[in-house]
Amino acid sequence: MIPGEYFLSDKPIIANVGKSITSVSVKNTGDRPIQVGSHTHFFEVNKALEFPREKSYGCHLNIPSGTSVRFEPGDTREIELTEFGGEKIVYGFSGLVNGSLEEKQNEAFKKATEKGFKGLTL
Hints:
The protein is α+β, with helices and mostly antiparallel strands. The chain is 11% helix and 27% strand. A hairpin with an 8-residue loop joins β7 and β8.
């Protein structure tokens, strides 16, 4: 092996094998583009994005790590979401969860409603 050398597979690499995948339609109701990274808790994305937010709880975009999706003003896009792995503990983003996804779900839904996040039907 030569230092810095790498080997590529002839077979495609499939991410998130065995995890559930959910498709949702997302509309940017805002007046500016919104970009969302691969590991952002999608439930907590910009409140101007309108989609069935309940379906996104505990999920992130089903795209390669380090990439993102851009939503232009007024545009609607179909995206795929996949569940977080590991201990399912989420901190940061919009501050709606900050802890265990399981333990904080009711509180997160309430906070999102109070803060005007679009797409909640509660």
